[in-house]
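Listing S7. Sequence submitted for prediction.
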Amino acid sequence: MATVILRPSSIGASTTGWALSPTVSQINDDNDSTYWMQNHAICYYHGALDDLDSSLSGATINSFTISGRAAGGKRGAADAQMSLIHSTDGIFATETENFPNTGITTRTTTSRTTQQDGSSALTYAYINACEVVFNPD
């Protein structure tokens, strides 16, 4: 199966700690000139992802990863936890990634090949019931 990129499609109610009034178009457009800036010690993004195209409903899903693009701040390098949350199974696939203070970089989590239970295959419906969390330090 080809690689499919699912971008954020909404901003969850628990999202906090970002400068101004961020919009989802500032983080899902693949454009480094639009971004969110953390302005509080407690900072968190939780939101839905685009759904997989319905033409893929019968396709085999081999794996998923989470990628984030960010830069370290005034204090230097910054860590961020990136997680996938399933609507029923809860949070899983959490990894902490380091973003150096050397400009914008992309960090990608380890590839996951199963659902949260560790043995069930990934499915179209399972992936479509997931949201993402980005939690910088």
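Caption to Listing S7: primary sequence and predicted structure tokens for the chain studied. The longest helix spans residues 124-128. Residues 84 and 132 are 5 Å apart (CA to CA).
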